Amino acid sequence: MTNDHPQQPHRTGTEPPSLTGSPFDSDTFTSATFVTVGRGPYLALASVWLLTRVGMVLLLLRDSLGIGGVGREVDLYRYWYSQFAQGTFPPGDATWQYPPGAGLVIMSPGLLPWLTYFQAFVVLTLLADAAVTAALARADSARLTHGAWVWVCGLPLLLHLPLARYDVQTTALAVLALLALNARSTASHRLGGALAGIGAMVKVWPVLTLIGTPRGRTSREAWTAAAVAALALLATLALFFSEPLGFLRQQGSRGIQIESLGGTALGLAHATGVWPGKVDFRYGAFEYVGPYVSTLGHLALLLTVVALGWLLLWRVRAHRWTAATPFDAALTAILLFTTTSRVISPQYMIWLLGLAAVCLTSRTTVMRPVALLLLPAAALSSLAYPVLYDQVVAGTPQGLTVMVLRNGLLLAATLLAARRLWTSTVTGPPEETA
């Protein structure tokens, strides 16, 4: 991959470090925190990755933090695997709410028949994690940037959850798509588009990685490749499996999950006696049921539509483009769709950490403060689930405090990302960029 970043001038020992509004903008932070001489940073990165991932695996094997049972999701995947073995997507299963491409990830542990399904799933998740780490580290071969470190150190903040969900694999598709789109060749643009299209068939959101592709040939190449890849994958799955679009019947019935922003509002209203509803287990998650829940769900959908409209308006109005703009736009888009969602599961933080890490591979990104907000949000997410999940479900002051802080950080990150994306690309005179 070509390096579009200009060479930094040589610094002498007497020059003061540059001062910025964010520690991630500081040359001192870069050189003092992460050694960038020879192979040192790569060895350090690999060592930290290995140590943290061993810790995550040990936590998963014990699986006793908080309410425990984080690994039970993999048992559900194994059940779905048995359905695919019969040539069908899970028929009439309210918990199957994923696009048909997710079936490939669910079936992938079959590639390692000498392991149990659980073992194979964890191994493949770690391989996807390692691929993301390697791609981020390679994104700036001249000087190791913070992106790989944000991913390597940020993912363990979610404890062992990432190893028991297939969101790491989905994030890998999005990360590789964005990095490929940042290259100059037509083949790379098509590859990035194809990966985004496949990712969209796995969990929808990776298609938003294309929102910031530069206008003209790059966008045409990427979007065409995405459409072709998605349609080809859908046709292939429809040829070999029945009910590939059955998931659409389940999505419309979703309510307000307790971990969403709307759920936090209902939890606070219930705690103060303003709202008489309750928590119920529906569609594989704890949701609020009662008066005004349907209205709040429709409001969330309306806000998602508004978010899409804002992104399209930004796309039309933007006239300043840098190498980091596609990365910054992708992170902003996912933040907008996450915070307006009726469901904010803890694994959504995996997506946000991955995209924030991609942003930080570029020195021209404007998302450094946003990445800083996402790190404590990830830590609070692991407090919410699994550590204090019983408190969150019960709506105790402790549980509500965690959710208010986590969702407050997500909302702040979303608004900050939107503002910085707009001001960096729309406000001011047009600017020629490489």
UniProtKB/TrEMBL annotation:
Residues 1-22 are annotated as: Disordered. It is found in: Cell membrane. The chain crosses the membrane at residues 114-136, 148-166, 191-211, 223-241, 292-314, 369-388, 400-418. The keyword Iron does not apply. It is a multi-pass membrane protein. Keywords: Cell membrane, Membrane, Transferase, Transmembrane, Transmembrane helix. It comes from the Bacteria. The keyword Zinc-finger does not apply. InterPro entries: GT87. Belongs to the glycosyltransferase 87 family. This is Glycosyltransferase 87 family protein. It comes from Streptomyces zaomyceticus.
